[in-house]
Structures are given as structure tokens and as C-alpha cells.
Q: What sequence folds into this?
């Protein structure tokens, strides 16, 4: 079976872990995040007639106290950048992380997930902010850990690009 | 004034116009001075030129310099190795493509050792597991523990004897942390190896980052309680083994050997690894060599109780086998005896745990099977079931005829085919009745009575013989009185008939010839003369019945004194016929 290493990156509390909690198989507890800074999950995605195992490295969110360890990015085939649609500053963090990933492991397939799309009344990210990124070729997907919107699509589309 | 260039040769100087002028101006002295100053340098230059012009000399000098230069470069840093690597790789690839045999020959010893180790490990671990379970199979305490805890007995044995066991082995891609292959002692423990591998890689990265360790350094051992994770580092992959117990130092060598073999075997696959683990399926045998188990050495001295038990079992088994063979032979002999017994037909016979059983047909006149059973010394009971029938074996026909006819003593019955022959001395009435009744016995068609002698006939002959007295003359010589020819004729005829009857009936007949004497002389004399007379008479009569035994005795003058038609005959011989047992 084919396997791919996929990293999940984003600012603290953007909902990375919640986003995938319902869709992945996990044997490790949340405390790994606060100890070694990463938690491993597995997501199986069907690609054509073959299944692909995505080994998800859910990396602890970047904040003022802790930086993402770039060594965790080594050997990744792709990554998911997660931002919180209700906190515009998390998009900035995502952009910084994107740059760090690029510097560390080069140009890899990725998706930018704008999470918490169910909180429409608190939504603070305008399309105008995202449009320049789209113009650069970024694939941006709105997701919701609560409703599941966009989650499967994010994994499937990233997998397709990684295998292409 | 110009001076020659320091690099100019004397010839150059001579060729140049300036030089000629200088030589002309200063003469031989200057030339001599110039030679003194420049000759050593010129010689060195000539030597260098000669070295350039001679490739062999260059090669020789480079041979001396290059090894030392390479050594210094490799010691300094790995930049020289990096420069050389592509050329060496290309060289090796080119060599393999051109002549794969050469590299195969070089690698074969290594691969052979590794393959042999795989095979040996697989076989020895299987044999060891069987041995261990057998060795401890009589351990009652562990049996009780297994029963009490509900665990399999083999597991209890292992828990008591295990020093260490490699339970799982992960082959992990070094860069991505993806699981390439996984082997384990059992399938149950092999779940989620992919996530475990990734987390193990993350922990390694975490340790390396946290303690500022270089890339070439790595976490080699993780120990938690009774579990140890041993990690061997390779250029493309790492090998992690989960060990229960206390691993020994040689385990690291085994891991390293397996990892090296995988690197050699899957060099191309590693180079093009994109997350597809299928090309590495063939790495499983090499990884399985790492699934080592080491158990406590068991006492070499044999368990005495076990030995006694085994000895008793062997002795008991041997005794049982010998006894069974003997019993089987005796049983076969018994059945053979029954088969040879007239009037018994065995239709079913069985020997088992429940006993001995026989069934069939039996003539009531046949020998008793239970009696044969007892005579052969059997102590166990025989269950016999017989259906009656009438056998036509000659012995049974004869016995049946004998039971029916009730022959008198001295009469024998013989059967020759369907003919019953009667022989002996019998009354005429019995003979008549027997002839009639014998024909009613199954198997008898004819009765032969030619061997029967009538009692009345024999009595008549006997009476005739015993009635004759042969007179002898008085005196000491046994002389037969003349004129007794008729008596002798009668005796000869009667004795001949008696002999014939005796032969026919098979009865023993003895003729006693009794000599008598008068009152003259002593008792001894009388007995002597009387015996001489008896012997004389027997001598005369014996030719007439040569088969009859004659017994001549002398009784002297004892009573009774014989009598004939002329009266008392004291000097005479009389006769007595004795009929004995049939011959």
C-alpha cells in the first residue's frame, strides 16, 4: 500500500486537531502535542481503485511561545495549512509557515484550509484578502470541524496532487 | 650592457648576438664565471625537463604521492568523498551493467551468510519452541498456573524462561518516517505500525532538535519498563526492534546485519521510494532474522522423576507389548486347535479389551472347546456360542456308531470311507443287531463283519482242544505212546482253526501244554519229566499253528489227573486255551 507523509500546520487554536479528529484513526493522546510538539494520525484516502495511507503529522500550533520544528517537515509529500476564518491574524501565521516550509523542504503540494466556516456571524476573512493568494495558484478550501464541510475534499484533492 | 637571462641556456647565450659580443668583450673568463654561477640551476632544469618527458617517471612519483594525498583529504572532511561518490557510483553501475557476474561474486559471500542466517533462525526458533514446550510439559506447577490464570501453557512456559524476545521489527524510511515493512511474533501485535513508526521518527527528531545533536547522531535505545526499543541507523532506513526482556549485545549485530542486507538488496528501491512499500515485501525474511528469542538455559542434568516416569512408561510399554504378542500367539494357537478339531467350525472369533469371544458350529460329539481352553492354561473366561450340527468327519462317524452299537470289549470299529469294519470277538446276536443298526448311522453305507469271530465258534474250538489228552510212555524219556494219530490229527486241525480265528478277530490266544507224571520218583523228577513231556508235545504240535504261542509247563503228579476214553492217564499231556486281550 502506498503511504504519504502529510503535515498539518497552522497557528495555535485554529482547529487543526478538531478538523481531522472525526476523520482519522488515532492511537496517540493529545498530550503529545504539548510534549514533543507533534501527534501522529492516519487517514486512508481512496485514489482510483487503490487506497493511500496518509500519515498525518499534526504539528503543534505556532504561537509566541513555541515555533514549529522544521525537522518534522522532512520527508513530507504535502501539507495542509490551516487558518481560522474568525481570526485574520492566523492567516498571517499561515503565510509565515508557508514560507518556512518552502525554505526548509522546498515546493510541496499543499492546501490552505480556512476553518470554522460554520461561524458565519463571526467570520472576519474577506474574499479580497484571499484573492491574491488564489491568483498565485493557492488552492483554498473552506472547512468546518463542526459540520465536516470541505474536510474530505481537502484530503482527496491534496492526495491527487501528491500522486500526480 | 645587457646580461643573459637567468633562464637562458649557454647555447641560447651563444646563439644570441649580444652574447657573442659579451663573450668577445670579456673573453673566456666571463664564460667560466657564468658557468660557475648557472650550472647547478641548469642541471635541475634539465632534470625536471627529463621528468616531464618521461611518463613512467611521472607515474612512479604520483604512485608515491596519491595515497597519502587521498588519506589527508578524507581525514579533513567529507567533501572529497562527495566528489568521488558520483564517479564511484557510476563506475560500479557501469561495471554491473557490463558484467553483473563480477559484483555478484563479490556480494555472494555476504548474501549467502545472510540467507543462511535467515534459514537457521527460522528453523532453530521453531525447533527451540517445540523443545521448550516438551521439556517443561511435565512441570505441574506451571500447569496449575496456566489452569488458574486461563493462559495457554506455552505462554506460561515462555514467561518463566524468557530472557528476551524481539516482538516486533519496523523498517522505517529514514527521511519521511514512513513504515516500509513490519514483522512481528504474531499478527495481533502488529497493528498501527505505520503510526508507531512515524511517532518514533518524531521522537527521534524531537530528541535530536532538543539536545542539538547532529544528523549523524541518533536515539538508539528507548526503554520503558520491561520493553526496550532498539534502533539501528542506516543511510536510507532505520530498523527499530521492540524487545521484551533484557536484550543481549549480539542483538545489535543481528539488527545491523539485517539492515545492511536490506540496504544492499533494495538499493534501487530506496532511491526511487515514493511511499510505495510493495517493492520491499521481499525484505520480510531478512527482518524476520531479527525476531530473536533467548530463553534461560535449562538444567542439563535430567529430571530424576521424569527419568523414572519415562523408564516406567518404557518398561510398562515393553511388558504390555511382549504380553500382547504372547497372548495373541496363544489365541492363534487355540483357534488353530479348534480348526483342527473334528466337529467344530469357528465362524467368528475376536480378542479385545472386553475379553475373548468365539462362535461357530459344534457337533455334540466333538471335543469340548472350554476344556481345550482350560488345558491350554487360559485364566480368563472364554465367551463361546455354539450352534449344534452333525459333523461327517470319520472320527465322529465312528464315535457315533460306537455310541449306537455299544460293542462288547474286544470288538473294535474302524471306518474306511463309508465302510464300517468290525473286528473282535462277539456274540452272534450282537453281530446281527450291529449289522442292522450300523447302516442307520449317517456316513456309513456298508458294514464289514469279516473281522468278527463268534464267541460260540471260539468256544467250540477251545473245547475240542482242551478235551484231548495225549498219553506218554512211563519212564524217564518223553516218548509219546504210539497209536494216537487221530488225537494228533484232531489237535492239529483244532489248533490251526484256533490260530485262524485269533488272526481274524485280532485276539490273543495262548495254548498251555500241561505235562503230567505218575507217582513214581521224587517231586522234582516228576516235574522235570512232566515238563519234558509238555515240551515234546508242543514241539510236535507247533508246526500246525506256528502263530500261536505255546507254553509248556510240567505239574508233576498234581491233580487233576487227566482222563481219556481209556480212563486215567497219569503220564500224559493235556491242553488249556487262554484268551487274552485283543492284539
A:
Amino acid at each position: 500500500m502506498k503511504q504519504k507523509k502529510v503535515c498539518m500546520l497552522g497557528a495555535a487554536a485554529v482547529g487543526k486537531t478538531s478538523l481531522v479528529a472525526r476523520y482519522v484513526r488515532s492511537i496517540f493522546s493529545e498530550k503529545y502535542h504539548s510534549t514533543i510538539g507533534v501527534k501522529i494520525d492516519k487517514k486512508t484516502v481512496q485514489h482510483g481503485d487503490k487506497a493511500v495511507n496518509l500519515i498525518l503529522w499534526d504539528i503543534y500550533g505556532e504561537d509566541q511561545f513555541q515555533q514549529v520544528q522544521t525537522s518534522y517537515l522532512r520527508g513530507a509529500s504535502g501539507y495542509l495549512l490551516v487558518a481560522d476564518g474568525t481570526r485574520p491574524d492566523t492567516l498571517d501565521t499561515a503565510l509565515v509557515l508557508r514560507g518556512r516550509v518552502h525554505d526548509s523542504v522546498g515546493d510541496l503540494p499543499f492546501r490552505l484550509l480556512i476553518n470554522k466556516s460554520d461561524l458565519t456571524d463571526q467570520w472576519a476573512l474577506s474574499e479580497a484578502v484571499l484573492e491574491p493568494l488564489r491568483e498565485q495558484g493557492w488552492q483554498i478550501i473552506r472547512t468546518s470541524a463542526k459540520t465536516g464541510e470541505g474536510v474530505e475534499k481537502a484530503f482527496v484533492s491534496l492526495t491527487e496532487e501528491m500522486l500526480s | 650592457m645587457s646580461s643573459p637571462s637567468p633562464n637562458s641556456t649557454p647555447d641560447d647565450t651563444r646563439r644570441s648576438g649580444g652574447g657573442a659580443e659579451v663573450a668577445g668583450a670579456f673573453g673566456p673568463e666571463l664564460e667560466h664565471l657564468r658557468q660557475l654561477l648557472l650550472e647547478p640551476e641548469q642541471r635541475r632544469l634539465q632534470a625536471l625537463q627529463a621528468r616531464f618527458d618521461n611518463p613512467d617517471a611521472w607515474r612512479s612519483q604520483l604512485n608515491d604521492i596519491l595515497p597519502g594525498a587521498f588519506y589527508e583529504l578524507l581525514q579533513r572532511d567529507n567533501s572529497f568523498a562527495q566528489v568521488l561518490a558520483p564517479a564511484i557510483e557510476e563506475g560500479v553501475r557501469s561495471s554491473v551493467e557490463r558484467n553483473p557476474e563480477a559484483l555478484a561474486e563479490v556480494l555472494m559471500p555476504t548474501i549467502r551468510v545472510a540467507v543462511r542466517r535467515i534459514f537457521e533462525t527460522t528453523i532453530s526458533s521453531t525447533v527451540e519452541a517445540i523443545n521448550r514446550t516438551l521439556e517443561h510439559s511435565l512441570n505441574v506447577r506451571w500447569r496449575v498456573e496456566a489452569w488458574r490464570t486461563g493462559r495457554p501453557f506455552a505462554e506460561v512456559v515462555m514467561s518463566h524462561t524468557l530472557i528476551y524476545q524481539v516482538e516486533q521489527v519496523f523498517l522505517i524510511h529514514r527521511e519521511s518516517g514512513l513504515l516500509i515493512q513490519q514483522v512481528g511474533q504474531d499478527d495481533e501485535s502488529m497493528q498501527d505500525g505505520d503510526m508507531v513508526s512515524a511517532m518514533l521518527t518524531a521522537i527521534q527528531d524531537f530528541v535530536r532538535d532538543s539536545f542539538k545533536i547532529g544528523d549523524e547522531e541518533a536515539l538508539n535505545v528507548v526503554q520503558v519498563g520491561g520493553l526496550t526499543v532498539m534502533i539501528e541507523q542506516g543511510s536510507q532506513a532505520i530498523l527499530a526492534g521492540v524487545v521484551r526482556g533484557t536484550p543481549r549485545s549480539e542483538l545489535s549485530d543481528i539488527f545491523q546485519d539485517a539492515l545492511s542486507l536490506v540496504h544492499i538488496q533494495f538499493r534501487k528501491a530506496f532511491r526511487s521510494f515514493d511511499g510505495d512499500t510493495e517493492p520491499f515485501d521481499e525484505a520480510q525474511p531478512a527482518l524476520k532474522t531479527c525476531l530473536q528469542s533467548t530463553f534461560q538455559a535449562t538444567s542439563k542434568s535430567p529430571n530424576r522423576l521424569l527419568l523414572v516416569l519415562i523408564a516406567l512408561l518404557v518398561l510398562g510399554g515393553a511388558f504390555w507389548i511382549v504380553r500382547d504378542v504372547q497372548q495373541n500367539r496363544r489365541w492363534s494357537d487355540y483357534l488353530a486347535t479348534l480348526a483342527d478339531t473334528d466337529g467344530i467350525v469357528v465362524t467368528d472369533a475376536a480378542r479385545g479389551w472386553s475379553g475373548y469371544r468365539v462362535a461357530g458350529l459344534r457337533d455334540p460329539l466333538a471335543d469340548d472347546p472350554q476344556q481345550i481352553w482350560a488345558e491350554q492354561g487360559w485364566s480368563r473366561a472364554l465367551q463361546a456360542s455354539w450352534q449344534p450340527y452333525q459333523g461327517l468327519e470319520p472320527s465322529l462317524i465312528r464315535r457315533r456308531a460306537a455310541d449306537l452299537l455299544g460293542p462288547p470289549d474286544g470288538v473294535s470299529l474302524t471306518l474306511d470311507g463309508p465302510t464300517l469294519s468290525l473286528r473282535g470277538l462277539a456274540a452272534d446276536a450282537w453281530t446281527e443287531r450291529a449289522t442292522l443298526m450300523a447302516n442307520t448311522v449317517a456316513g456309513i453305507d456298508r458294514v464289514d463283519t469279516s473281522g468278527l469271530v463268534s464267541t460260540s465258534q471260539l468256544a467250540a474250538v477251545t473245547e475240542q482242544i482242551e478235551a484231548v489228552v495225549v498219553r506218554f510212555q512211563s519212564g524217564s524219556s518223553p516218548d509219546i505212546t504210539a497209536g494216537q494219530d487221530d488225537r494228533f490229527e484232531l489237535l492239529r486241525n483244532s489248533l490251526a482253526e484256533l490260530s485262524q480265528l485269533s488272526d481274524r478277530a485280532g485276539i490273543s490266544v495262548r495254548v498251555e501244554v500241561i505235562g503230567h507224571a505218575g507217582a513214581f520218583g521224587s517231586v522234582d523228577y516228576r516235574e522235570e519229566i512232566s515238563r519234558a513231556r509238555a515240551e515234546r508235545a508242543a514241539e510236535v504240535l507247533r508246526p500246525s499253528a506256528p502263530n500261536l504261542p505255546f507254553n509248556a509247563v510240567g505239574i508233576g503228579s498234581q491233580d487233576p489227573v487227566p482222563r481219556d476214553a481209556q480212563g486215567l492217564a497219569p503220564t500224559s499231556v493235556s491242553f488249556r486255551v487262554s484268551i487274552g486281550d485283543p492284539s
